Amino acid sequence: MSTILISTQIPGPKSKALSERRSKSVPRGLSHGTPIYVAKAQDAWLEDVDGNRYLDFAGGIGCANAGHRREAVLDAVKDQLDHFLHTCVQVTPYESYIRLAERMNEVTPGKFPKKTIFVNSGAEAVENAVKIARAYTRRPGIIAFEDAFHGRTMMTLALTSKTHPYKAGFAPFPSDVYRVPYAYCYRCSYSLKYPECDLYCARHLEDTFKRVVANEDVAAVIAEPVLGEGGFIAPPPDYFKVLIDLCHKYGILFIADEVQSGFGRTGALFASERYGIEPDLIVTAKSMGGGLPLAAVTGKAEIMDAPGVGGLGGTFAGNPLSCAAALAVLDLFERENLLARANELGDHFQRRAREWQHRWPLIGDVRGLGGMQAIELVKSQQTKEPAADETKRIGQYCYEHGLITITAGTYSNVIRVLVPLVITNEQMDEAMDVLESAIAAVCDQKGAVAQLV
Ligand SMILES: Cc1ncc(COP(=O)(O)O)c(C=O)c1O
């Protein structure tokens, strides 16, 4: 039986009315991937205010890996609601914060002693990771990558790469941030090919220390183990080992931003595990809170203890409802085989997407790690000219036919999959059928495409 149910023109009348109210009351700077207003979400589907039902490849931008409104998460939050909502952990602490810190210290890669602090958002966690790295090393510099996304606060904008819409008009940004190319093999900055390149892009850090910033002035290198907003780019298997060896050679910390790649997305709880690496600091958020706002920095105990008493924290940081939800999410990962499921879903996606790549030159690259999969769309497989318009039209076709997708990539030409890992095989087939017909509509039926624009 079909999960998707579309009974109005999309957007329906109620969504349209809300869009009108929205345009008068909310600044345009807040964008929306779709014009659909949600009324309900469960597991891997959403229902809008007009009663249309969609499958969800976006998961609230990677926040629903364990599924929307899982019963265990709701029960944990309801139980917490019956006790207290907020006291501020800096005034009267509570056990769930400590228990969650203990769990995070256990489940993150690395057998060394660790500590964890909680904050509210991915950006806030990245900010704190930078503070901690600077306090520990007593150095200012942070090296970030081209195509990286680390958030929308001022420091994280300095670390983020994409200029439009994120950075344009918001300068000046904090200083001492240096940018180097990432291992984006499909568009290699050095026009090399893996493995013959011998990971030139990682080894090139030595050169950066001579030409751009002195190694003794660098506190940390921060990287997403798989780029999220930057286009779901998973570097070659040995890339991070080379990079981290170089960092440690110069007393530089390695921060893994696992805000998007973490919490089961790549078939391991953390993508770092897929690369066999143990970051000095690891930043998590999104799916950790099971739909509630929560983020964390976990790291080597001696590094985490570098900031002085009172140097870390925040009024709502690690609030009790979010901690309760996160503990339930970790239990779900232990109880249900969600990591294996991420790999199955990734394989499912790859199988279909590789067929599309043979059929349609629009599909330039199919890539990912575990359940973190994407297609990069190009006007020609030879020139690799990004196909941003086509990507947009595919997204529009998809939501009009019952599938919520989101794009990514510096050139806005990537369709990424952040589907809740609880989607059934039948639902996944249904979703992939919609995506396939969207690509077909854009590639094969120019008339149909014209109607969509
Ligand atoms: C890798 C990465 N880091 C940081 C952030 C910022 O997280 P937040 O939006 O919760 O501040 C994001 C958000 O998409 C992200 O993908």
Structural write-up:
This protein is of the alpha/beta class and 453 residues long. It has helices at residues 13-25, 59-62, 71-81, 95-107, 122-137, 154-159, 163-167, 200-203, 205-211, 239-249, 271-274, 301-304, 320-335, 338-359, 388-400, 425-444, 446-452; strands at 38-42, 45-48, 53-56, 114-119, 141-145, 177-180, 218-223, 253-257, 281-284, 295-300, 363-369, 372-377, 403-404, 406-408, 414-417. The radius of gyration is 22 Å and the shape is globular. The relative contact order is 0.15.
Bound small molecules, by name, code or SMILES, are: pyridoxal-5'-phosphate
Residues in β-strands, percent = 15-25%
Largest sheet: 7 strands, mixed
Number of strand segments: 15
Task: Tell me the Rg in angstroms.
Answer: 22 Å
What is the mean predicted local confidence, pLDDT? 97
Q: State the helical fraction.
A: 25-40%
- The unreliable regions are 447-453
Q: Give the helix/strand class.
A: alpha/beta
**Distance between the amino and carboxyl termini:** 31 Å
Strand order of the largest sheet: 4-10-9-8-7-5-6
Determine the number of helices (DSSP H or I, runs of at least 4 residues): 17
